[in-house]
Design brief:
It is found in: Cytoplasm. By secondary structure, the protein is α+β, with helices and mostly antiparallel strands. The protein has 14 helices and 18 strands.
Length: 430
């Protein structure tokens, strides 16, 4: 019977065949231990010379790292293994023998590993991170589908920029200018006026020359937009969504979190409601913490966000930022026009902003004024302004950066490990 490694628990005491790669091995006298992986998980194969004979035992001892094979044996419970099972091997059928696999069990430098990212993905740690990422994606669809949201796919090639063109990749679209999308938000607002509650999930691009551990050039965003939702409604969806994702990872990726040495007690605290502070309160707090350089009207950098987050054991909302430092489409506070009805959600443990969101301007005249103030191309944004002409309603939305969220939940230090093939400032290979 052919099975996958994750199905082993359903076949205790049975003889099975698994298609696998040899991740590592060691031998001790008359026993060989084979560390096997098949993409679904890892299991140890135990080859006992007295049970399989000289030929199979020598075969087990000579297999090279990352050779592919069909391995047959009996599934047994193993309390010493984090997985809980091992395979008592009876026969080995080698499919393809690997030659001089470059990533050995010894330590390698980051640049070397990034040059071999296509192979580094096979390691236990990278496998665990990708499984956590996959669970976050699965839980995202579950959350929004269960709440009546419709998945909408905005274009990647656009003729205008939601937040200005300074950080966009420019290209030619036949005989006109085009850009790789930095956000699908404006299109999602149009979709919300047609379908009520919508979300997108796709790649976005920022031509930002940053080398920090929080930045990628190409990354994935989850961007919901909701008609008839005000600022408070928006915050409620955000905290419920993040809590749902974290609890789903805890429920379904315990083995992977253990492999990453993640302190799950910190994740277990991530439940609604989340704390909130205003931008004004954040400035006051930072001054008390010795950040004398920050003044009202400045945006927060990574050190500021980290200092604020260290005060909390949950993600914290920073609300009501100054109008001047936020995008043109954000709704001003009706009681205080110098700030907007927006919030950034800052993850704990130094992982920074994972969500930016706001109530959107729904008054056509105000939006057109803002487009002019920001010196944007009025013709390019004509369709966006028209949304306010034909039955405008209060509406809100947000964007969550997948890779920063994966980094935080899995506990990895740098976002380059959170996407299969990262695009960084100086890296377009492999």
């Amino acid at each position: 019977m052919k099975i996958t490694i994750t199905e082993a628990g359903q076949h205790v005491g049975e003889e099975v065949t698994i298609g696998a790669w040899l991740a590592n091995k060691r031998s001790s006298g008359k026993i060989a231990f084979l560390q096997l992986r098949d993409g679904t998980g890892f299991i140890q194969g135990v080859v006992v010379k007295s049970e399989v004979g000289e030929e199979v035992f020598q075969q087990a001892k000579s297999i090279t790292q990352e050779s592919s094979l069909y391995i047959t044996g009996t599934v047994q419970e193993d309390n010493r293994s984090p997985f809980g099972y091992e395979l008592s091997v009876s026969s080995i059928d080698i499919i393809a023998e690997a030659e001089d696999y470059p990533i050995t069990p010894k330590e390698h430098g980051t640049e070397f590993l990034m040059d071999h990212r296509h192979l580094w993905l096979r390691s236990r740690r990278q496998h665990a991170v990708m499984k956590v990422r996959n669970e976050i994606i699965r839980a995202t669809y579950e959350f929004f589908n269960d709440r009546g949201f419709v998945k909408v796919d905005p274009p990647i090639l656009t003729g205008s920029a939601p937040e200005g063109t300074s950080e966009l990749f420019h290209t030619r679209y036949f005989d006109e200018d085009a850009y790789l999308s930095q956000s699908g938000q404006l299109y999602m607002e149009a979709a919300a006026m047609a379908l009520g509650k919508v979300f997108s999930f796709g790649p976005t691009f920022r031509a930002e020359k940053s080398k920090t551990r929080r930045h990628l050039i190409e990354f994935w965003m989850i961007e919901p937009e909701m008609a008839f939702y005000n600022f408070e409604d928006n915050l409620k969806v955000q905290e419920e969504y993040v809590s749902h994702v974290v609890q789903s990872v805890l429920a379904n990726c315990r083995l992977e979190l253990g492999r990453l040495d993640r302190d799950t007690s910190k994740l277990e605290q991530i439940k609604v409601p989340f704390p909130r502070i205003t931008y004004d309160e954040a400035i006051e707090f930072l001054h008390k913490q010795g950040f004398d350089d920050i003044k009202w009207g400045d945006d927060f950098g990574a050190p500021h966000e980290t200092a604020i987050a260290e005060n909390y054991d949950k993600p914290v909302f920073i609300t009501h930022y100054p109008t001047a430092i936020k995008p043109f489409y954000m709704q001003p506070d009706p009681n205080r026009e110098e700030v907007v009805l927006c919030a950034d959600l800052i993850a704990p443990e130094g992982y920074g902003e994972i969500i930016g969101g706001s109530e959107r301007i729904h008054d056509r005249q105000l939006l057109e004024e803002r487009i002019k103030e920001h010196k944007l191309d009025e013709e390019a944004y004509k369709w966006y302004a028209e949304l306010r002409k034909y039955g405008s309603v209060p509406h809100s939305g947000f964007g969550l950066g997948l890779e920063r969220t994966v980094a935080w939940i899995s506990g990895v230090e740098h976002v380059r490990e959170t996407i299969p093939f990262p695009r960084l400032l100086n890296r377009l290979y492999p």
